[in-house]
Amino acid sequence: MLFNGWSGVIRIIIMALTVYPALIFMLRISGKRTLSKMNMFDMVITVAIGSVVASVMLSNKMTIVEGLTGLGMLIILQFAVTWLEVRSEGFTSLIKGEPQLLLYQGQYMEKALKKERVKKDEVRQAIRAAGLASVEESEAVVLETDGTFSVIKHKHQNGQSSLKDVEGWERNKA
Questions:
Q1: Which residue, 9, 49, 70, 118, is the most exposed by fewest CB within 10 angstroms?
Q2: Per-residue pLDDT tens for 107-121?
Q3: Is 3.40.50.720 the CATH classification of the domain at 98-173?
């Protein structure tokens, strides 16, 4: 069916004009962390928010109040999770996981690569993206909790290492 009448189109326009500003308002008051690229839980919330918005706009069975309640609950839950995450190390490790060392001083961490399902060419790609010409120019490559790669260049000064909280670093430090 190509066209079912103007009432459905008008309903979608009205819903979009109502839901979009409400969503922007809710996200604004909930803080920057609500839609940040932080971890798997944040991605799930982002997808769920998109799903609720689409359902409110396109479904005749969901009212605006039900949709806004769903959005509000997702944002409240995201706020609660991030609040707990900042205050509890145990909760953080449950939700977020740990960064993983994939390469250290030119040596690939084979077990870590297999565990994280990362190929050596992906590590080399991250090194190139960081502007380094060779694997040896990097001190380490870390798979972060948000799925991105961090490339640490060889250190030239003494100080606290940025690898301090990375799984596998302490074993390879000595």
A1: 9
A2: 999 999 999 999 999
A3: no
